[in-house]
Amino acid sequence: MPAKETKKDVITGFNFSQKECVWMKAKVVPTKYCDNAFDCTTCNFDKGMQKKMSRESARAGWNTHMFELPVEEQRCRHALTGRAPQNKMCARNYECGECPYDQMLDDMIQVDHTLFGPPQYLSAHGYLVPRDYYIHTGHGWARVEYGGRVRIGLDDFGNRLVGRADKFRLPSLGTRFKTADESFILSREGHEAGIKVPLSGVVTAVNQKLLDHPECANADPYSAGWVVLIDPMELKSDLKELAFGVESVKFIEAEAERLLSMIADDPKAAAATGGEPISDVYGAFKEKGWDNLVKSFL
Fold it and tell me: Is 298 part of any domain?
C-alpha cells in the first residue's frame, strides 16, 4: 500500500520533514530541504556539495557563509530536529564526522527509543496507529530516525492478534534483510510467528530487553516494545510501499473488519464490535488456530 507523500522525495519521520538543509542555512544553495534526518555524514547531497566546493577551490566559502550567519542560526544540526537543546551551537564548521558530540549522540540513539519522545496516535476501530510511523501489510511498523535509520516492531493490531508473547528470537547485529524477510520471531505456548521486515537493511541494534521481558512488546508496542534498528539500503523506494498517516488508518480498519468476519460466528466476537478491540485474539479464539491467524494477517 503506498505511503502518502507530503513533499516529493521527503521522508517523513520524527520532526524531520521539510527542514532546511545546513547548506541552505548557510545560504550556499537557495532551496534544499533535508531528507536524511540531518545526518550529513551519510547524505549524498552533502557529499556532492563537498566535491563541488573542493573542485571550485571554494571550501573557505562554506566557512565564511556559516560564520556570517547570526549566532542564533549557527546551531548544531541536532538542535534542528529537537535531539539536542535549542541553544546547542556548532563549533566544528559542520564537520560532523569529526565531532565527538555527534558520535556520542549516535551511540545513545542506537538503543534509546525515548530520545524522540512518545508517539502521537490516531485510532482505527480502537487500534492505535501512530502518526509518524509507516505500517507494513504484515503488521510490522517502521519509524525513521536519526541518520535515516529505521526502528522496527510489531503494531498494535499484530500484538493484539497473537497476545502476550513468551519469547523473542532476535537477529544478530549485521544481519542483512530484504523486504518481507522474517526480521524476528516471537513465540507463544510453543507456537511461532515470523514477523516480516518492512524494508531492506542491515541490523545495527536489537532490543535486548525483550529477551527477559517479552511482555514489553504487547504492553507498549510502539515505544519500549521496539524490536530491531536497521540501517536501510533502499529507504525512499521501500517506504513508498508502506502505509502512512490516513492510509495506515484505512488499512488497520480494513484488517479489523476482516478479523471480525473470521470470528463473527463465535458469541465472544461481540466484544470486538465497537469500543476497545480484543486484547488477545488468539487467547480468546484458540479454536481458530494459531497458524490460521498468523498466515491470514502476519
Answer: no
* Overall average pLDDT of the 103-116 stretch: 62
Domain that holds residue 43: 19-111
Which region holds residue 33: left if phi is over 0, alpha if psi is between -120 and 50, else beta?
A: beta
CA distance 278 to 161: 8
Task: Determine the distance from the C-alpha atom of residue 174 to the mean position of all C-alpha atoms in its chain, rounded to a whole number.
Answer: 18
57 lies in some domain? yes
Do residues 23 and 35 make contact, with C-beta atoms less than 8 angstroms apart? no
Tell me the CB-side half-sphere exposure of residue 58, using CA atoms within 13 A: 11
Cα gap 90→71, rounded to integer Å: 10
C-alpha 36/C-alpha 137 separation (Å) is 25
Spatial neighbors of 231 by CB under 8 A, at least 6 apart, are 147, 148, 149, 201, 202, 204
- Please tell me the total count of domains within the chain: 2
pLDDT at 81: 58
Distance (Å, rounded) from C-alpha 239 to C-alpha 5? 10
Alpha carbons 136 and 1: distance in angstroms, whole number:
8
pLDDT in the model for residue 13: 55
- The predicted-structure confidence for 165-191, as pLDDT tens digits, reads as follows 999 999 998 999 999 899 999 999 999
> What pTM was computed for the model?
0.71
